[in-house]
Write a structure and sequence with these properties.
It is built from seven helices and three strands, in the order E-E-E-H-H-H-H-H-H-H. The chain is mainly alpha-helical.
């Protein structure tokens, strides 16, 4: 970019960025999905009609590279295809009852014997084993999962409490003889919900 372009008044065209996450977890996941940054915004919990839309948005394409998913994508990249097979083999050995360390070791052996990630594993097999063992801490993962479940429960409780509060307010406003449209606007409830009170 020319230094003088910093002073241009006209808009500078930019290449379109594309953000991609490669998913290879064990939970069922669609082949292709999209995540939006705005889904994580706290303001979503307090959203009403007068609140402006988020000023920043980022859409990330999530591609499931787990074994058996997105074959056409994996066939275009031997590295991704090999990695998908490797992680599948680790899980397969774990499912057979092997401890994680032994499952990784067996997956490395399988892949080396079957020309999967061959050059990389030949040069780095011990590093791969150590990296996978040190980067993934099962106890820590379980702790995070519990914390996440607690937060989800707390959020659900908060939402239910807000909804219950809206029903209580609607009952009081109905008792005061307020117009249905006003109660809908004031509580965010539907006409059916209010009429069922």
């Amino acid at each position: 970019m020319d230094r003088k372009s910093l002073y241009w008044e006209k808009q500078i065209p930019l290449m379109t960025p594309e953000f991609i996450v490669l998913y290879n977890g064990q939970k069922p996941y669609p082949d292709i999905s999209y995540m939006r940054l705005s889904d994580a915004f706290i303001s979503q919990l307090h959203k009403n009609e007068e609140e402006p839309a988020p000023s920043v948005e980022l859409v990330v394409k999530v591609i499931n590279i787990g074994y058996g998913h997105n074959k056409s994508i994996l066939e275009k990249s031997k590295s991704l295809q090999d990695y998908s097979i490797f992680t599948y083999k680790v899980q397969e050995y774990k499912d057979r009852g092997l401890l994680l360390q032994e499952a990784i070791r067996q997956a490395v052996i399988y892949c080396r014997e079957n020309d999967i990630m061959q050059p990389f594993l030949t040069d780095n097999s011990s590093e791969v084993e150590n990296m996978l063992l040190t980067d993934w801490n099962w106890d820590e993962a379980m702790e995070v999962a519990k914390e996440e479940a607690w937060k989800d429960g707390q959020e659900q409780g908060w939402k239910e409490g807000k909804k219950e509060e809206a029903f209580d307010i609607a009952k009081k406003l109905l008792a005061m003889g307020l117009d249905l449209d006003m109660i809908i606007k004031g509580t965010g409830l539907t006409a059916e919900q209010i009429q069922s009170l």
